[in-house]
TrEMBL record:
Matches recorded under NCBIfam families: octaheme_Shew
Domain of life: Bacteria
Name of the featured protein: Octaheme c-type cytochrome, tetrathionate reductase family
InterPro entries per UniProt: Multihaem_cyt_sf, Multiheme_Cytochr_ET, Octahem_Cyt_c
One Pfam family in the UniProt entry: Cytochrome_cB
Signal sequence region: 1-24
CDD domains xref list: Cytochrom_C3
GO molecular function: oxidoreductase activity
Length: 453
């Protein structure tokens, strides 16, 4: 009788603990408000989650910079937005009021903002139901005036694909503009589009691969400075992933041998931008003209179903940093993978090859950030915009400017197709034109001429 009583008590206690855990996920139980600002919500979050606030405070998503061991010549330096110039919206100095729309904080770029003040952290942008929360487009990353902060705070939970993609899909100023393989369609799609995130496939969250610890989110994009770790396919699939029963053991062995030289993404992402077009070229020199594709931003070339550019990559990259000299013979490379056929650590990876024509100082031979938001986009005076942008970014400006061609290589890792739609042998070999083997250092088709030594 005593044993049964003991078991009963254990069962009741277990049920209580489980129930309490489930109930604790419903934040409406203990968040009542009212809240006058996003910072007031954060104060409430910190009252229970002080350790998490400390973790976020020192994360790249909040600091917008961090150490990296993957940038050639700048190993373990702390680098971030302040050090970066790209070919899209160019960079943050003087443009913080708009850029802060995708910062995990409130007030970034304002005089009163401090990274030391944890109440500046925006917990809601990652954890709230985004049908109840959004940031204002023009208010330094603060909540939109229409948001009911109490309802938003009560809705918090684990980040969803929508939380992540609300910023990452819109990098560069619009859906799929920059990355090429990160579109809003990933929020709700099918396995034909992406086997990992398709709701009829694995239906994975972003954190399934970008496994987060202490709010540090691993992931490496060579055009982004700073990293909190690397994500690889081998985390789930091992380095010898081919074991299909539909083909011979020899064929599986051949495919696994390929995996030592060819990245998984190369065969399993034949095209990118399958739903929305991505920008492949951006000519800023045309901005200000009424005949441009956009008077604000200039001319574009947009494409969908894009075949990647294939390059060797060993995990390191070369990046243009603020103040670097431009290439007088052009184009100036802003980000590219490091690797070669001789480097055994290198594999062939797919990339989006993006070209931009953007402003540079004609005397100092360096790229310059223009003041765009409430700057050039209002007065369309390049000299005025470049003077203000250079001052904000700590650069000299001679008063003489030109437009230089730049090139950026962006890694492609999303939009993985079902295995039956992956590239086959004939895509690349024996007449296949998918890969230019000679450009990669081979004598020709390695099936005919032999592989690398």
């Amino acid at each position: 009788m005593g044993k049964k009583l003991t078991l009963g008590i254990v069962f009741i206690l277990t049920l209580f603990v489980v129930s309490s855990t489930v109930m604790a996920m419903d934040h409406s139980m203990f968040i009542k408000g009212p809240f006058d600002s996003g910072k007031d919500v954060t104060k409430k979050c910190i009252s229970c989650h002080s350790e998490e606030a400390e973790d976020v405070q020192h994360s790249i998503h909040y600091q917008w910079e961090g150490k990296t061991s993957t940038i050639k010549g700048n190993k373990n330096k702390s680098l971030g937005k302040k050090d970066d110039i790209n070919g899209f919206c160019i960079s943050t100095p003087a443009n913080e009021q708009r850029c802060a729309q995708c910062h995990a904080g409130y007030g970034y770029g304002t005089e009163e903002f401090s990274f030391e003040d944890q109440t500046n952290i925006d917990c809601l942008v990652c954890h709230a139901d985004l049908s109840k929360y959004k940031k204002a487009k023009k208010d330094w990353g603060r909540p939109d005036k229409s948001v009911d902060l109490v309802k938003a705070a009560q809705s918090v939970g684990q980040p969803t694909r929508e939380n992540c993609l609300s910023c990452h899909a819109y990098a560069g100023g619009g859906n799929n503009v920059k990355e090429g393989d990160i579109e809003k369609e990933l929020i709700h799609t099918n396995r034909e589009y992406d086997v990992h995130m398709g709701t009829d496939g694995a239906d994975m969250s972003c954190q399934s691969c970008h496994v987060t610890k202490d709010h540090k989110i691993p992931g490496r994009s060579i055009h982004v400075l700073g990293s909190e770790g690397t994500v690889t396919c081998a985390q789930c699939h091992t380095d010898k992933p081919h074991n299909s029963s539909n083909i011979s053991k020899k064929a599986n062995a051949t495919l696994n041998e390929h995996a030592q030289t060819v990245a998984c993404q190369t065969c399993h992402i034949p095209e990118f931008s399958k739903k929305s077009k991505t920008k492949m070229e951006w000519d800023w020199s045309a901005a200000g003209s009424k005949d441009a594709d956009s008077k604000l931003k200039g001319n574009f070339v947009k494409r969908k179903n894009v075949k990647p550019t294939y390059l060797w990559y060993n995990g390191m990259s070369e990046n243009y940093l603020v103040g670097d000299k431009i290439n007088p013979d052009g184009p100036t490379i802003l980000a590219k993978p490091v690797g070669s056929i001789e480097d055994k650590k290198s594999k062939i990876y797919p990339f989006k090859e993006f070209t931009s024509k953007q402003p540079a100082d004609a005397k100092y031979n360096q790229l310059i950030t223009p003041h765009l938001f409430k700057g050039f986009w209002g007065h369309f005076d390049w000299d005025k915009a470049l003077k203000a942008g250079a001052e904000a970014g700590g650069l000299k400006y001679s008063g003489e400017y030109t437009f230089e061609t730049t090139k950026t290589f962006i890694g492609i890792s999303h939009e993985v197709v079902p295995k039956e739609k992956a590239l086959n042998c004939g895509s690349c070999h024996l007449g296949g034109d998918r890969i230019d083997f000679e450009a990669l250092g081979y004598e020709g088709d390695p099936m005919v001429k032999g592989g690398r030594n």
